[in-house]
Prior knowledge:
- The structure is a single chain.
- By secondary structure, the protein is α/β, with parallel strands linked by helices.
- The chain has two domains: 2-129 and 320-334, ATPase, nucleotide binding domain (Nucleotidyltransferase, domain 5), CATH 3.30.420; 138-316, 2-Layer Sandwich (Nucleotidyltransferase, domain 5).
- The protein is built from eleven helices and 14 strands.
- It has helices spanning 48-66, 105-113, 122-133, 194-197, 199-211, 217-223, 230-238, 242-266, 285-301, 304-309, 321-334; strands spanning 2-4, 7-9, 12-18, 22-29, 34-41, 73-80, 83-85, 90-93, 117-121, 141-147, 151-157, 160-161, 270-275, 311-314.
- The strands form four sheets. A five-stranded mixed beta sheet has the order 5-4-3-6-9.
- The longest helix has 25 residues, at 242-266.
Amino acid sequence: MQRKTGVVVASYYLGVDIGGTSTKTGVVSDEGRTVAKLRVPSVLHKGREEGLQGLYETLDQVVEQSGVGWRAIRAIGVAAPGTMDIPAGVIFHPFNLPGWENLAIRDLVSERFRKPAILQNDANAAAYGEYWLGAAHDARSLMFWTLGTGIGGGIIVNGEIVTGAHSHAGECGHIIIQMEGGPTSEHGIHGSLELYAGAKALVRRCEAALNAGARSSIRDKLEQGEELTPVLIADCAIQGDALAERLVLETGQYLAIGTVNIIHTINPEMVLIGGAMTFGQYETPIGRKFIETVRHEVRKRTFPIPAERTRIDYARLASDAGFIGAAGCALKAYSPC
């Protein structure tokens, strides 16, 4: 906050989380209060120019909705997927943003709105959101897993996002847990964690079990025309389907292996699990069994002290974590204090 003529004046930061399916934006005060947020379908598939124009319009809309006006926006945080050069503000290869290769997104946004801007990887931004205002607000170090189609990761140590020498740190979904055999990756990184514990992997393992003759209510639902998705598998697990529950808990076992590798590398105070595939978290029996499976499998495989002291929990900010974290990164970079 700034103090002007004896009056405390809040400053605001604009965060945007760009995804292939939707773009999530929000205006966040320097105290961490979200004053407006907006989620719109992405039009990125229509190409670079139309995608950028849609992004600019969305940012204008959320600032107008906030009522604070552009003059009160101190800086903009941009979170995006894929490989990038974070210090240069350039996206190299955004996997689900066609036409956005080698795009200087930070400078384009900064020039368009005449505000300083930063670029951050989307999983890193979500991790920072949870660290700043979410489930890890009382921790100093964090490993954050985002479970979705694949698996993303973000690492924070002593309050700083670990980005690495080439902006590629935290890509923990690509940790190798199977050296030979197993599923192959379109990126050439075979045997990685996300090939066992991501949403695509869960569906693939389910298909393999059904093709092998496993009995399950999932088969009945597919015959009725439903699509095989992690949501369907989770719903069947909640309803007591044995195959569905086994598949979900296997996912927890695989994730625990990746978590053990991280614990033995950086020894974080906390490990959080977020993203679209968290099985209802504590609201469902399978969500509770999932997190307990991760905790149990981690405890079996780590040294006694980290096994006892490392907190493993679900993330709290849901789909808001990305834009909140992006705004928080902008605050960290451009706060007047």
